[in-house]
Amino acid sequence: MDKTEILNNICYTKLVYDRINKKLKSNYSKTEIETLLFAILKETHEQDFQKIGKNFYVSNVRNNIKITINSNTYRIITVDRLIKTKK
């Protein structure tokens, strides 16, 4: 898995923007979503990139976000908030 390759090839479908806004309870524009996710992926340590099956899962605790990316097409599938565990 190569983080640079993901950053260079990341892409989106028309439907994913609405899905991301719904999951994040936000109303970002397409450009804002792309800018935000690129910045999060760029700052996330490569050790927090996991390949499971056909997807990459990128967890960024600082932004409380998990990004799911198709490992063949580099297409963003969805974004989820990380579940915070109580100590």
Mean pLDDT over the full residue set: 93
pLDDT < 50 runs, ≥5 residues = none
Q: State Rg.
A: 12 Å
Give the N-to-C terminal Cα separation: 33 Å
The largest sheet, given as strand count, sense and whether it forms a barrel, is: 4 strands, antiparallel
Strand sequence of the main sheet, in spatial order? Answer: 1-2-3-4
Structural class: alpha+beta
Count of runs of 4 or more consecutive helical residues: 3
Give the oligomer, counting copies of the same chain as homo and different chains as hetero.
single chain
What's the structural domain tally? Answer: 1
Let me know the number of strands: 4
- Write down the overall geometry: globular
Proportion in β-strands: 25-35%
**Secondary-structure element pattern, one letter each:** HHHEEEE
User: Level of helix content?
Assistant: 25-40%
Organism: Flavobacterium gilvum
Protein name: DUF3781 domain-containing protein
Pfam families: DUF3781 (PF12636)
InterPro entries: DUF3781
Walk me through this protein's architecture.
- The chain is α+β, with helices and mostly antiparallel strands and 87 residues long.
- It has one domain (3-81).
- The chain has helices spanning 3-9, 14-24, 30-43, and strands at residues 49-52, 55-60, 65-70, 76-81.
- Strands 1-2-3-4 form a four-stranded antiparallel beta sheet.
- Strand 1 (49-52) and strand 2 form a beta hairpin.
- The model has no long low-confidence stretch (mean pLDDT 93).
- It holds the Pfam family DUF3781.
- This is DUF3781 domain-containing protein.
